[in-house]
Amino acid sequence: MTEAEKGGESTLTVVLAGGVNLAIAIMKLVAGVITGSGAMLSEAAHSVADTITEVLLLTALRRSDRPADRVHPFGYGKERYFWSLLAAVSIFASGAMFSFYEGFSTIFGEPEEQTAPIVGYLVLALAFAMESVSWVQAVRQVRRESAAARQTLGEYLRLIDDPAPKTVLFEDSAALVGLVIAFAGLGLHQLTGSAAWDGAASIAIGLLLAVVAYLLGRTNRGLLIGRQADPRLVRGIGGAIIATPEIEALVDLQTMLMGTDQVLVCTRVDFDDSLGASDVEHVCVRLAAELVEKFNDVTEVFIEPVPRNDPDLRARVLARYGDEVATRWNPATGSGPAAPPSPGAAG
């Protein structure tokens, strides 16, 4: 799938989710006022938070596509991560916090009589059907892209460089679970006559939103800090460098995600000592072009000629990757690059 196709599908996923969430938020708010259900009002806040999230994600998709300029020579790709991080904060601030407030107010405040619970049930059922439409679109996109990347769904979500579909998938999944919780709270309130069940449901919804906000925030934090590319891509790049006839050793290889489908490659290599300065320059230009052509995500390549036995450089590589990887990259006994550590903590 091309970058344009992925961006178009991400936009469709976000716009569909935003429209659905706005409609559901209005329905839940009206039902919450009619029924007096704290859980229903918490779900209304949940949908408002989701709507704000979609607006932020749409902003991310639009602003991150701007071309590089003098002020930002590597482009604006990381804007997508910044706005997606704000979306995670929005889920916590406007969704989870209101749900906690509503839940504790319901449990410890003045008891409110439940009225017209059938309205709540109908709205929750309709909201579940509508949310399912958005959720199916998010699942379809994530499954298609994970299959194209030849990764399991879990691997793809952990290594994803486009936070938009992951955000929509997580928030829609949370929305469906939240609707079930609200339904249970409304039903138990009606059966027992105790508003504590309604309040407990609100608190449970708040906890659910807090967990989702944390998971999404962790993902975007890692991307903003600067995460390495997919380890399989890094191995492929390293193999292509080692296979270059004029290069005797791959001394160091660093990659960083600069945006969705945008990878920066910085490598240090030991060239054949028989090459002249002009030869090295031409090899660098040729190799950079080959890497960009062979690996679609690679957008920038920097190549630095270095001696393989420089102690300070080797110490830095050892500190970053450990002895096994550095040994395979650097010394004469090495046969090629090893896989850099998998970014397991990147979320």
Automatic annotation (TrEMBL):
Sequence ranges assigned to domain Cation efflux protein transmembrane in this UniProt record: 15-224
SUPFAM superfamilies associated with the record: Cation efflux protein cytoplasmic domain-like (SSF160240), Cation efflux protein transmembrane domain-like (SSF161111)
Pro residues biased stretches: 338-347
Membrane topology of this protein: Multi-pass membrane protein
Transmembrane segments: 12-34, 40-61, 81-98, 118-136, 168-189, 195-217
Residue span of region Disordered: 328-347
One family name in Pfam for this protein: Cation_efflux
Keywords for this protein: Membrane, Transmembrane, Transmembrane helix, Transport
Annotated localization: Membrane
InterPro entries in UniProt: Cation_efflux, Cation_efflux_CTD_sf, Cation_efflux_TM, Cation_efflux_TMD_sf, SLC30A9
UniProt protein name: Cation diffusion facilitator family transporter
Organism: Amycolatopsis minnesotensis
